[in-house]
């Protein structure tokens, strides 16, 4: 894993914020060995523009709530709400409409890069509760 601790922290916090807003197909890709400009990409999808923007807002809020606050240095695509990019330098977040996610297939473009495991904490709790019979 080539991502810095900071990039890992940001990526996991952003992924959880996206999951909390019901984002789909959340993937964190370690691009540190391939790109000098960032350590990781976070990819997430939503079925409509309103949800894309809600996910973006949740990610920004979550990263501002970290002990070492993070604000994006660049934002693109908000007006259309089909593909919003948030550049945090350590990570770049791509929240895409499901159609854009399928068409541009960033996952396949970066398929040779390792992924960083992410498990939605709510899903993990539900599975743990089901396993204990609660």
Automatic annotation (TrEMBL):
SUPFAM superfamilies: Nucleotidyltransferase
Physiological role: Functions as a ribosomal silencing factor. Interacts with ribosomal protein uL14 (rplN), blocking formation of intersubunit bridge B8. Prevents association of the 30S and 50S ribosomal subunits and the formation of functional ribosomes, thus repressing translation.
Name of the encoding gene: rsfS
Source organism phylogeny: Bacteria, Bacillati, Actinomycetota, Actinomycetes, Micromonosporales
Cellular localisation: Cytoplasm
Quaternary structure and interacting proteins, as annotated: Interacts with ribosomal protein uL14 (rplN).
Key words, A-Z: Cytoplasm, Repressor, Translation regulation
Pfam families: RsfS (PF02410)
Stated name of the protein: Ribosomal silencing factor RsfS
Single GO molecular function: ribosomal large subunit binding
GO cellular component: cytoplasm
GO biological process: cytosolic ribosome assembly; negative regulation of ribosome biogenesis; negative regulation of translation
Family designation: Belongs to the Iojap/RsfS family.
């Amino acid at each position: 894993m080539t991502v810095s601790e900071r990039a890992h922290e940001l990526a996991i916090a952003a992924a959880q914020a996206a999951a909390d807003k019901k984002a789909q197909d959340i993937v964190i890709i370690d691009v540190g060995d391939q790109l000098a400009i960032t350590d990781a990409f976070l990819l997430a999808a939503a079925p409509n523009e309103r949800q894309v923007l809600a996910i973006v807002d949740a990610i920004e809020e979550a990263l501002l709530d970290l002990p070492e606050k993070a604000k994006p240095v660049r934002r693109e695509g908000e007006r259309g709400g089909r593909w919003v990019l948030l550049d945090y330098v350590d990570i770049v977040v791509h929240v895409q409409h499901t159609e854009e996610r399928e068409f541009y297939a960033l996952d396949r473009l970066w398929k040779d890069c390792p992924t960083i495991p992410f498990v939605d904490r709510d899903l993990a709790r539900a599975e743990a509760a089901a396993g204990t019979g609660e």
